[in-house]
Amino acid sequence: MRINGVEIEDTFAEAFGIKMARVLITGATPHWARVAAQEATGFGTSIIMCPAEAGIEREVGGDETPDGRPGAYIMICHMSGKELENQLLARIGQCVLTAPTAAAFNGLLDAEIQYDTGFKLKFFADGYEKEDTIGGRRVYRIPMMQGEFIVEHSMGAVSGVAGGNFFILAKNQMAALMAAETAVSAISRLEGSITPFPGGIVASGSKVGANKYKFMKATTNEKFCPSLRDEVETMVPPDVEAIYEIVINGICPDAVEKAMRYGIMATTKIPGVVKITAGNYGGKLGKYKMHLKEILR
């Protein structure tokens, strides 16, 4: 298959199940909603060593928020439901409650799993908290030096999908980077998915385990390293000098596949992109197989 002259390899991305919470953060301006969202999702690229995977889903206007202010949806992901609950409390408590003008609302009202994160955060008020409703939602008003912090009683979570991905193979690093940025921009407009790595882009790439250093959980994906083309059994074509990976987490398989489709289609329009492929690990990583050609039909 070729799209806009770019080869689409007949392969699949291998993804795995993960617990996922979704939070709506609002602020007085889009800038301050974004600041709080960025802080709350920091150090959240990969559960290999980060305490959670996290990212900004999309930004929204006041017409989509309970308090009528601009906002941003974020997602926080963990393999353990208990650890996800802890991460919600820590990240909202330390990064959103402390952010100027920020408020936090439930991003998954209909989810079966509901953590009482807001209820626990109200104790910061030391007895001065007040219960209220905003847009029909049960919230707590926590008095602070700037005024009040508003947080909804519960935060919802679902069993989601992590590790959807595709690789962008390009003639040079700048072409690869431009294509990756374009893909992330396209995905950022969608509902239900995040790209948790820096700027949404993975520069390193990795494989499960190691060939030499057996104590490592993950190591460089040498088959996709252009500088090792002459030293290993390579997957890098002769005319490719740079590869970036886009990793996608979502609330369901359909959300991840939609993000992959939008991202790949945007990528194929960038000059210098040679090929699109995906990472899979022979079933070692997860149960979801997302075939590129099926996604793009």
Number of domains: 2
Decide which structural class fits the backbone.
alpha+beta
CATH class categorisation of the largest domain: Alpha Beta
For this structure, the CATH topology of the largest domain is: Alpha-Beta Plaits
Number of helices: 6
Distance between the termini: 10 Å
CATH architecture of the largest domain: 2-Layer Sandwich
Return the average pLDDT rounded to an integer: 97
How many DSSP E strands? 17
Q: Which consecutive residue ranges, at least 5 long each, have pLDDT under 50?
A: none
Tell me the β content. 25-35%
| Shape call | elongated
| Integer-rounded radius of gyration | 20 Å
Helix content: 10-25%
Helix and strand run: EEEHEEHEEHEEEEHEEEEHEEH
Please outline the major beta sheet. 15 strands, mixed
Question: How would you characterize this protein structure?
Answer:
The chain folds into two domains: 2-14 and 161-296, Alpha-Beta Plaits; 18-157, Alpha-Beta Plaits (2-Layer Sandwich), CATH 3.30.70.520. Helices cover 23% and strands 34% of the residues. The protein has six helices and 17 strands. The chain is of the alpha+beta class and 297 residues long. Helix 4 (173-187) crosses helix 5. The chain has helices spanning 30-40, 81-96, 117-121, 173-187, 253-267, 292-296, and strands at residues 2-3, 6-8, 12-26, 53-60, 71-78, 103-106, 113-115, 130-134, 137-144, 147-152, 155-170, 193-194, 207-208, 218-219, 242-250, 273-277, 288-291. The chain is elongated and about 65 Å long. A hairpin with a 2-residue loop joins strand 1 and strand 2.
